[in-house]
Structures are given as C-alpha cells and as structure tokens.
Amino acid sequence: MVGERYGNYQAIALLGEGGMGAVYLAEHPGIGRKVAIKVLRSEMDHDPQLLTRFLNEARAANAIRHPNIIEVLDSGTTDKGASYLVMELLEGEALSARLRRLSRLDEKSAIEIAMQTALGLGAAHAKGITHRDLKPDNLFIIPEPADASRERVKILDFGIAKLHKLAGDSLKTRTGTLMGTPIYMSPEQCLGTREVDHRSDVYSLGVILYEMLAGQPPFLSEGFGELLSMHLHELPAPLRQFAPQVTAQIEEVVRRMLAKKPDDRYQSMTDVRTALATAGQLPNTVSPEHKIGNTDKFGGARTLAADSGEPKPNPLAPTTLTPGGMAHDALADGTLKVRGKPWLAIAIGTAVVAAALVLAVALRNKPAAPPAAKRPVPAAKPPAPPPPTPPQMIRVRLESTPAGARVVRVTDGAVLGTTPTTIEVRSTPKPMLVRVEKEGFAATTREISLAAHGEVSVALEAIPAAPAEKPSAKPRRRGGPKPQPAEDRNEPAKL
C-alpha cells in the first residue's frame, strides 16, 4: 500500500499491522502535513459488521472530541474499494511498551495515567459511549505539543465501542460474540450479556491500574475459558502482595474498581478520579495536561506528575489602613501624611516605645537556659529487601514461510495457532519446544525462548513429489536354452 493515495494523502511507510488492518504513515503532498492512515483489510470490506466496527471509531471520536482521545480527521474508500480512516499522527509510546520497558510504574505515575484515562473516558460516557476494549495497547502516551516537558494520554481504538445515544450507531454483535481482550474484560463482558455499560470501563481501568502497580494483571491463564472464569468468580490477589510500596488507600480504590458486580464499583469516572486523587494525595484537576519527571529524550523512564490546577492566591489589595489603624495619604515623596486625631497617634507611639523598653530589660535580666542534653542518635535501620519481581507475560510472534502452518506445543500437543500468530505466555528461563507443520511440507521442531518478547520465523521445506514409475522392460536372458516356440511349449517335457 506504500505509495497509494488515500484522499489527499499519500502513504509513505508502514507503521504497524493488526487483526483488522494496517496503519501507514502518510503525507499531504501539497502542505507536507503527516497523518496516520488506518486501512481495513480487503477481505473484511465485504462484512457489514466488521465495516461498521471499523467506522465506529470515527463516529465515536467525532462525537466525543476530547484532548485525551485520538482525533479522526477523515474517512473514505479508495478507487480499489479499500476503506480507510485518516487520524492524527501520534509520536510517543503505548502504555504496553512502557510496561515492557519498566516492568511497573511508581504509584504517582500510575495514578496520574489512570486519572487522565478516566478523564477521557468520562467525556465518552457523557456522550453515551462505552469503550469496551480498554487495554495498555490502546493507551498512547505522547509529549504535550506546546511543551515537551509534559505528557498526555491518548485513548485509541473505539472500534468496538457501544454507542447508546446516537441513533442508528449501536453495534449489533453476533449472538454469543465476546467483544474485548480477555485479560482486561469485565465479568459482564465475559458472560456475553448485552447489559454492558460504562461501568465495564471502570473494571478494565482497574485491571490496567493493578498491572501498572504490580507489574502483572490480576488474572493470568494460558486457557481462554479459565481466564473468563477467574474474572467471573475469583477475587484478585491483594495488590500489596506484589507491590508492598503501595498505600492501603490506593489498594482499596483498586479493589473497588475490580468489584464483580457493577453496582459495587464506582458509578462514574468522576468518582474514580476523586477517589484516586484523595488516596494518592494529588489534586483532582480537570486539565488534561500533566508534567513529567525524570524525562529522558533518549527513551529513559518517564513519570507523570499532575498540574496542581489550584488557583494561585490573589495579591493583597491595597488598603487605606495602616497597622496602627490610622488612615493615611501617600505623598509624592513617598512619606505618609496622617489623617485623623493627632493625639491618638502620639499616644500609640508612646505606648510602642514603652513596650520596647520593658521587653529589652526583661531579655537582659533573663537567666541563661542550661544546655540541652544530647539525645542519642538512633541506629540506622537496615534497608528493606526489594520486593520479589512477579512473573511477567511475554508475547512471541511466530511466522512461517509459507504462512498458514500449524504451531503445536510438543509437550502436550496443544495447538497454539496458525502462522502468522502471536502467543502470550508467562516469562520463564526454560524454552518451549514447538512443532511447525503444514500439509505438503516437512514438519520442523524449534525451541522458543520465553525469557523476553521476541519473534521466530521458520522456513518450511516442501516435500518433493515421488517420481512416476516407468514400465519395466522385459529382462533378457543371458545363456541357457533359447525360448521354445509356442507349439513346442505345449508338448510334454522330454528327458
């Protein structure tokens, strides 16, 4: 698609690919403005439901129009029938990338990212829009355009958002279809119920906040069904079990966000922001702008710190009363002219002088205080051991040439997917042995490292076709009697 025209923009580079399409860097040839073009896969253009889901992002973003939500500038269809969206170009990093780089965030940074996210989601909920696919991949952190020392959270991908109030814009899903990412889905989403409202986003944000502080989500499982059961029936481990540095107040806020029943959670994003600000002792400002601490332009750790948002005290207004209670006028030379009763001024001045003399005599005659006894300096406490690092989830991308090969785990025969595919497993130093197989090609076995995120590419060799059998020539006899004529062979043998 590089070089193709999308409206007034021309694609110049591939930025990334996903399940529904690809995102390209594009530029306006005339004015040089750069944007991101999201193109729907050609095989999905003919599915009305998927096309509606794709265009839902443009409808939702246009309805909300908030600084914490990505802006969709245009949409259209190319001459070849490809549907696309023109979006603002974001330069920064996804929250998922930051978590992979830092493992976990400090309490203040995590709270402020959650507060910014709640601010954008609150604006969406006010328009009757529920995101329903909130996850670290859909939270993008960018520098503030007007101030590089500030950061802003942008919420992406309202593709499966449910629009309540916009006529004709509600997304009708197939019966039994689960919409969302299992690790961050609310219990009501896991049930596949249609009664999914804005409180589902409160639960998903609670999962993200738990992961930012603990270094892992509250529920992890390699089995899809088991993960859904955890969301429905199991309580998450106490947050401070993995993050002892977190205060009990923050732990309680996260616990309530992760309540199984929607009625037991916070009922709005405003309530979430207020609870986080109170527990974290941060100002609950409505400004989307946030400051950065420890900024490293070369990709180092960044932490957010909210603007106070509190009004500065006004300077004291000039008064016509002096400390002595007398009115005054300022003269041109800067001296004061006393108005009122002169005897009052004289009496007050005499009293002030007398009080100063009495105080000076008292201080001179006061006995010196005995030297204070030295208090023993308490011994320094040994530093607390660092908390154990929880296991991390990693993603491994598996590709094959040709594509469409089945990936099987050798240990138990479980099918992990069909290439190209991405598997998500717990990080471990022990590699995993997989077999890549495709009809017509020789199966191959590979060890996959599970120590960190990575990619594995396998080239399969085609099985050569067996050569066709040629009719064998009649063997010629060497030596011995020559074959007898037919009439002789019918005679009895002669001794």
Commentary on this structure:
- The protein has 495 residues and is α+β, with helices and mostly antiparallel strands.
- The chain has three domains: 1-89, Phosphorylase Kinase, domain 1; 92-306, Transferase(Phosphotransferase) domain 1 (Transferase(Phosphotransferase), domain 1, Orthogonal Bundle); 393-456, Immunoglobulin-like.
- 26% of the residues lie in helices and 23% in strands.
- It contains eleven helices and 22 strands.
- It has helices at residues 48-64, 95-102, 107-126, 187-190, 199-214, 224-233, 239-242, 248-257, 269-280, 342-365, 486-489; strands at residues 5-6, 9-17, 21-27, 34-40, 72-77, 83-88, 93-94, 129-130, 139-144, 147-155, 162-163, 290-293, 303-306, 328-330, 336-338, 393-401, 406-409, 415-418, 421-426, 432-437, 444-448, 454-459.
- It has a six-stranded antiparallel beta sheet, with helices on one face. It has a five-stranded antiparallel beta sheet with strand order 7-9-10-12-13.
- 27% of the residues are buried.
- Residues 165-176 and 287-348 have low confidence and may be disordered.
